Amino acid sequence: MTNRKRDSAHAFAEWLHTRLTARGYDLTGPRSGGKSRFAEDSGLSPSTVGRLLRAEPVTDTDVLARLAAALGVPLGEILVRAGVLSEEELGAVRAPDTGPRRITPEDAAAELGITDPQARRLFINMTETLQRTPRPNDGRRGADPQPGAQPK
Fold this sequence. Notes:
CATH topology of the largest domain: 434 Repressor (Amino-terminal Domain)
Structural class: mainly alpha
Largest sheet: none
Number of strands: 0
Helix content: 55-70%
CATH class of the largest domain: Mainly Alpha
Distance between the termini: 81 Å
Number of helices: 8
Number of domains: 2
Shape: rod-shaped
CATH architecture of the largest domain: Orthogonal Bundle
Radius of gyration: 30 Å
Order of helices and strands: HHHHHHHH
Strand content: under 5%
């Protein structure tokens, strides 16, 4: 285990110990009953609670989700405190960059696998022409009459 992960696991164990003690769980000794009582209250196994308190890394998201629910803490905070995600990674998950991705006709041809030079030129020219051509009814209130339709 790397030093960073070990430090993270120890910090998480200390944080959890403080939280459980503040909630009234007696963690003063192996027979104090607090660990077993929290395990029962949270739906986690006593061995899992013990591993968490001994600073053994637990990265199972189901376990961490149950822990978050039992403590009334957002799962994201637990994932960061447990060292599963960094603050930056959590931020990226919470607010992903979903802005529109504009690509050039050349990029589109490459992504579509159009490698023949003549086919590429045709594709690029057609795409550029379509990009310059206004769509029907753009900026106009009424639709053009259908061919053969009689004016009213």
